[in-house]
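Team,

Forwarding the record for the chain on the shared tracking sheet. I've put the sequence and predicted structure together so nobody has to dig through attachments.
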Amino acid sequence: MQADKHKVSVILLTKNSASTVQKSMNSIFQQKRKPDEVVVVDGNSGDGTLEVVKKYPVKLVTEQGLGFGYARNLGVKNASGDIVFFLDSDCYAEPDWIGNALSRFDSNPHVVGVTGQTRLWNTESAVARFLAYVGGRVNMPAERKYVKIAPTMNLALRREAIDEVGGFDENLIRCEDTDLTYKISQNHKILYDPSMVIWFRGSPNLRAASRKCVRHFVGVGQLFAKHGLKSSFVRFNLPLRGFILIATLLSLFLLPWYVPTVLFSFLLAEFSYKSIKLYLRYRDPCVVYYVIFFTFWSLASLAMFYGLYLGLKNKRKGI
């Protein structure tokens, strides 16, 4: 136990993370304020991840691929700290990550969670850069503020707050961290502190980004079924754009020529406006990916209706 009287547990989820997990582990064990324990929950990695992890003094737990919510709950169950830190295995933390967060807990007993800046280290990847831009991971706020939701790639929580809301929802396809922190923030304070910094890799290619995108929107739909239509869960212009795109395609065969022309013109105008705005803001040629994701994200966002169906189905079953 260290001088601040807290017991700190760091939980790291891994699965086939051999190319990045050493960065994560080094950053954890090189903290100025050392963790009291590190719990690694591995999803049956087959690429050498475990060989890296076993070089460090960690508590290693294996899970059978039952989802992110289950894996995170398993990590919490095997952790004994009163403050639990979460970090992803493609991320690494600044050396004062733990210390800065603990100072916020100590200075304000009403704060039960601390999150902070997420910065991209994989800057050579145009896909990763683009997703960081549109996901709001670039030029993050420089002032402290209270937030309603926070990502587990950079999050510290009081153990009692996790237990109070029943942990992570294991029925969610994704967005389990959004759900947990949203529930906690209804009665407690989660602080965004820009001095709590981690670096993340981001999606390394279009295939990984697309898969993550679809699963995210299914999770958003499940959140809508659970909590109602909250604007903080999704940008509502995405599904609207998706409906307009489908309506445009159908109108080509079912309606007079001027109807698809008007609809297509609207989509083209919005696309041009967003593309130019994005480029003028970042001056980065990687915004060409907006051409690719413009259509795909619009359609993928409609996966939230499948998630809504799943969520309502579970509600009827009392899950």
